[in-house]
Write a structure and sequence with these properties.
Blueprint (H helix, E strand, L loop, with lengths): L4 H31 L2 H5 L5 H37 L14 H6 L7 H11 L8
Helix pairs in contact: 1-3
The structure holds zinc ion.
Length: 130
């Protein structure tokens, strides 16, 4: 069932709100990175132990930002589809994604069935082939 205007508007608000919240987080991340450059974690005379902890922290921060960036890009793409058309339509099979799924994942690009297939094909745990 296609989205009603009211449902589309509600989802648009959710996408905007999530995007703005995420943008704030990304800005904070960037500000924190600028305030605490790598050298300060390691100290002025780092020994090997200090340095590996500093590397770990740097890696964790990097991973966080990457995940946020991925979600941010997905939300930007969803905004584009809301504007240009195609929002709520599965990118793979062209069927309606469904209001309930979009409410849970406003940036969803595929219906549940295609997302399942996509994850089994391109990611997740490898299945034993018989
Ligand atoms: Zn589909």
């Amino acid at each position: 069932m296609p989205l009603t205007d009211q449902q589309a508007q509600e989802l648009r608000r959710m996408v905007e709100a999530r995007r703005n919240a995420l943008l704030g987080e990304l800005r904070e991340d960037a500000a924190r990175t600028r305030e605490q450059p790598y050298a300060e974690h390691a100290g002025s005379a780092p020994d090997a132990g200090d340095e590996s902890v500093a590397t770990l922290i740097a890696d964790l921060e990097q991973a966080d930002v990457t995940r946020d960036l991925d979600e941010f890009r997905a939300l930007e793409a969803a905004r584009e589809r809301l504007k240009e058309g195609g929002y709520g339509v599965c990118a793979d099979c062209g069927n309606d994604i469904g209001y309930e799924r979009l409410k849970a994942f406003p940036a969803a690009l595929r219906c549940v069935r295609c997302q399942d297939r996509h994850e089994k094909t391109y990611g997740g745990t490898p299945k034993p082939s018989l």
